[in-house]
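Severity: low
Component: inverse-folding endpoint
Summary: output formatting inconsistent between runs
Steps to reproduce: submit the following structure tokens with default settings.
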């Protein structure tokens, strides 16, 4: 009973049956309620037809009816008490008449005797009679054909002949309609549902080794296309998650082999005296790689994100404060300014949080007294706070690694973008497209990172619906995070 084809066929059959029944009931009701009107119309049509079949001689006098008219004269002979006609001239003289009792036309009312086209009613032999007068013009003269019949006769025609035959005709028509169109509907349903069976078979064949496969929508009915498209999008998300996990496993296995081999070698040469220091360096490097691999795997899964309104200026200050010690160790200054997307021009160079090479002790981020909403820092984006911190931290860390000693790394905060600029050697144009790939490392980087920092930033930006790009500067490089649709995120 859950079959779509069966439900459509049942609905079709019920619809045909209800249509036929409704038509029959409507016809019966109209016939019952408007019986006299139908009788008058039938008599008028019959009189008009007889008038068209009159035959005239050379002098213009009517002599009778043509062959078709004469074939109907038997009715007037057999039903002379219930059906009669007569033809009168303009003076009221009878020219032609059907065989009937003289009292038949004597009972006609004054409306018929006025020889005016129209209907008239009278009573004859205890039966209600209805008649009609039709004008028949010929060669400048007008003749009047009057036809009268009993209501019982025309009621017999309607109720005992017309309605039963019409019912039989409608029944035959409905049966043919049900069979022919039902067969056509069945064949069409089979043809329409065949692509769904093919799509179902294709979906059943998809496995973890074939997650790249997609369901075809070329032959699928238009109403089912949104469902197939949704399924394909779900497959795309599944493939992406599966690919991310596979790449993570492969990357982790590849990247951990070398540090583990080095650790093993260093342990074997502990007796040389330099072993412990080198071992600690290798362990630190491996720890960093493992941490970045875990961050990359986490950033690749959008369900891990919780979006809340986030103050971008505060997030920038938090990242700057976190990396202050690293910047001091490399003699690099960190500062936060307003982005040039405010009012169409760059804001004054007013740092809001900075680490100076001359600072000593526990350096802390400080807010410049002129900074605030006027400087372009009072900006709110919808973001995952932890992921945003990781994004800014990685961009700042990457800039610090490439910035020369004594230079400044700037965080620019704006309404629709936030940027991190260093004043280092920059990147050649042909390498710009490779920067966000996994394990890419700049030629001037001072540490031994795994090359996953920018890849992590790219994953975080895509999860937020942002874009991450690199803009060459002279000197240095600007990494820009752009909020494509500020009204959304």
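Observed output (run 2 of 3):
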């Amino acid at each position: 009973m859950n079959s779509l084809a069966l439900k459509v066929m049942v609905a079709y059959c019920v619809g045909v049956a209800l249509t036929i029944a409704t038509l029959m009931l409507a016809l019966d009701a109209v016939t019952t309620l408007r019986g006299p009107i139908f009788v008058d119309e039938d008599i008028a049509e019959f009189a008009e037809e007889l008038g068209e079949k009159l035959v005239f001689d050379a002098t213009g006098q009517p002599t009778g009816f043509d062959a078709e008219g004469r074939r109907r004269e038997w009715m007037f002979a057999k039903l002379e008490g219930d059906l009669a006609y007569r033809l009168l001239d303009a003076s009221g003289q009878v020219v032609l008449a059907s065989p009937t009792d003289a009292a038949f036309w004597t009972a006609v009312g004054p409306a018929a005797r006025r020889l005016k086209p129209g209907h008239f009613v009278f009573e004859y032999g205890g039966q209600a009679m209805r008649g009609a007068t039709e004008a028949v013009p010929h060669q400048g003269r007008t003749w009047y054909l009057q036809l009268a019949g009993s209501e019982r006769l025309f009621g017999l025609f309607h109720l005992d002949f017309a309605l039963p035959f019409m019912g039989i005709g409608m029944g035959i028509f409905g049966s043919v309609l049900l069979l022919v169109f039902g067969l056509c509907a069945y064949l069409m349903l089979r043809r329409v549902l065949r692509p769904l069976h093919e799509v179902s078979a294709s979906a059943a064949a998809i496995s973890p080794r074939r997650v790249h496969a997609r369901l075809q929508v070329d032959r699928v009915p238009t109403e089912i296309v949104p469902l197939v498209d949704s399924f394909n999008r779900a497959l795309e998300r599944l493939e992406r998650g599966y690919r991310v996990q596979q790449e993570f496993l492969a990357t982790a296995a590849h990247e951990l082999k070398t540090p583990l081999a080095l650790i093993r070698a260093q342990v074997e040469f502990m007796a040389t005296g330099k072993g412990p220091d080198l071992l600690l360096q290798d362990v630190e490097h491996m720890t960093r790689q493992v941490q970045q691999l875990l961050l990359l795997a986490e950033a690749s899964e959008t369900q891990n994100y919780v979006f809340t309104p986030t103050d971008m200026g505060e997030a920038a200050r938090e990242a700057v404060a976190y990396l202050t010690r690293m910047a001091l160790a490399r003699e690099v200054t960190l500062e936060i300014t307003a982005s040039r997307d405010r009012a169409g021009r760059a804001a004054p160079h007013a740092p809001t949080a900075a680490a100076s090479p001359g600072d000593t002790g526990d350096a802390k981020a400080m807010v410049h007294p002129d900074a605030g909403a006027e400087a372009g820092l009072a900006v709110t984006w919808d973001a995952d706070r932890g992921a945003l911190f990781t994004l800014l931290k990685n961009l700042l860390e990457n800039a610090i690694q490439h910035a020369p000693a004594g230079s400044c790394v700037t965080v620019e905060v704006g309404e629709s973008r936030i940027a991190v600029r260093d004043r280092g050697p920059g990147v050649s144009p042909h390498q710009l497209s490779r920067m966000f790939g996994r394990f890419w490392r700049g030629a001037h980087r001072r540490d031994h990172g795994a090359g996953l920092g920018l890849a992590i930033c790219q994953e975080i930006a895509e999860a937020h619906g942002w874009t991450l790009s690199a803009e060459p500067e002279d000197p240095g490089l600007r990494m820009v995070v752009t909020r494509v649709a500020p009204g959304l995120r």
